[in-house]
């Protein structure tokens, strides 16, 4: 499913439309009505129609009631079995109430009498396009519900963070590509979603790709889709995230880890909104707003030959930097309170507050993992707490009296004591914990859920700790 430029109402969505008719003149008439706005495929019998559906991502099928000696009604359930998302309309030169009932009974959504008026068939396909957009939006929202994260803190007591939100509001009103920088766990993905939901695209899909989590071939498929048989394991055609997010927003999470082989393909898409599926030479179009996020210094990556300079310029038309949690301590209590309310409800616990000592630990701990670490720490405390109040020992504590990771004495310490020694010790514990979880789980997806980290973060941790 592809979209032409212009977010908001009235967007024309370019669909794959299959015309199934045994009369060549009828197929040509429908093609002439549709191919300016949609990708039209043709078939003249059951077998050729099924081959098209299995080989390409078709959104709409216009099926003649009679296909020589075959029945178009009998074809419909076979098409829907191969492509459950397909929208089918039946066409007949001899429309009757009985034939219309038969068509609806097997899954057709509409019924048109031949010869079909060009404006009528185009309006029908546009109505199907709107339904398909809505389905994609529902799928994305269902994914959000399954993820069930705590509500984001979209206000801040910190002046730097308030400026970030103010800039995000301005960015949301445009279609410009935006680059969000910040350490892991600072909430770059939350900010990207906020920009989407505050934009004219808010009713469209917000899709996410974790750039470091897949091989170059699979990442290209995740971005642009693939055809059946394009590579080992490609048992059916599949749309990519750029097609799913047509008219909406695509977040490229940790774009600094994008494989070099994919970078020129992404650059072309950002420039032209044009792409090809893996295994399919046909060029497609999709109008998508691109937001990227990274914790890497991309300028250093360019110097190292790991990232294209022209791609960076295309991605950072507007740039936002999310400060680490240690630089906005004013938000600690608000965030901790949000997480406490959310996790007590999720886990069915009767906990109403933190103790005075717990609040002290929240304020003095450095939170090297930023907001994500605070969220995980509060959830763990809620699960382990056996009283109405969370006590200090259930939360991480600073060691050696250090309060902030950025203190000069911590950075200069070369003896293993102070913050640098504490961070080294924390990394050893973290590495051992991740190793244990990986050994106890069968898939990386399961390990990610247990560790409560993103796929991209797990990939980086495995690489960092050689796991």
């Amino acid at each position: 499913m592809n979209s032409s430029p212009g977010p908001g109402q009235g967007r024309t969505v370019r669909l794959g439309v299959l015309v199934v008719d045994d009369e060549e003149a009828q197929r040509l008439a429908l093609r002439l009505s549709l191919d300016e706005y949609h990708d039209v495929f043709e078939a003249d019998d059951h077998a050729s129609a099924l081959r098209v559906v299995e080989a390409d991502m078709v959104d709409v099928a216009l099926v003649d009631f009679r296909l020589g000696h075959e029945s178009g009604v009998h074809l419909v359930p076979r098409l829907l079995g191969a492509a459950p998302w397909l929208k089918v309309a039946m066409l007949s030169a001899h429309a009757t109430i009985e034939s219309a009932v038969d068509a609806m009974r097997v899954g057709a959504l509409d019924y048109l009498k031949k010869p079909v008026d060009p404006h009528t068939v185009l309006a029908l396909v546009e109505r199907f396009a709107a339904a398909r957009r809505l389905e994609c939006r529902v799928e994305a929202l269902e994914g959000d519900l399954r993820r069930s994260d705590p509500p984001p803190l979209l206000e801040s007591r910190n002046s730097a963070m308030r400026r970030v939100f103010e800039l995000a509001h301005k960015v949301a009103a445009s279609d410009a590509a935006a680059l969000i920088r910040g350490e892991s766990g600072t909430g770059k993905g939350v900010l990207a979603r906020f920009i989407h939901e505050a934009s004219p695209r808010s009713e469209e899909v917000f899709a996410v790709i974790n750039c470091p989590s897949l091989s170059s071939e699979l990442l290209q498929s995740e971005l642009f889709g693939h055809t059946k048989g394009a590579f080992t394991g490609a048992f059916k055609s599949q749309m990519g995230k750029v097609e799913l997010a047509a008219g909406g927003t695509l977040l490229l999470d940790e774009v600094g880890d994008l494989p070099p082989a994919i970078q020129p393909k992404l650059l072309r898409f950002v420039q032209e909104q044009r792409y090809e599926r893996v295994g399919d030479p046909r060029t497609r179009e999709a109008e998508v707003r691109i937001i990227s996020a990274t914790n890497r210094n991309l300028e250093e990556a360019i110097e190292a030959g790991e990232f294209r300079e022209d791609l960076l310029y295309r991605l950072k038309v507007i740039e936002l930097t999310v400060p680490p949690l240690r630089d906005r301590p004013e938000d600690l209590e608000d965030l901790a309170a949000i997480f406490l309310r959310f996790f007590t409800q999720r886990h069915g616990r009767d906990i109403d507050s933190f103790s005075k000592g717990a609040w002290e630990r929240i304020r003095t701990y450095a939170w090297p993992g930023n907001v994500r670490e605070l969220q995980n720490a509060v959830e763990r405390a809620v699960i382990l707490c056996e009283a109405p109040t969370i006590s200090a020992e259930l939360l991480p504590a600073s060691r050696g009296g250090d309060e902030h990771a950025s203190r000069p004495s911590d950075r200069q310490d070369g003896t293993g004591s102070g913050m640098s020694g504490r961070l080294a010790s924390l990394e050893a514990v973290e590495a051992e914990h991740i190793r244990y979880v990986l050994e106890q789980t069968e898939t990386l997806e399961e390990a990610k859920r247990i560790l409560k980290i993103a796929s991209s973060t797990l990939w980086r941790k495995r690489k960092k700790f050689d796991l």
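The chain has three domains: 2-134, 149-323, 411-467. The longest strand covers residues 87-92.
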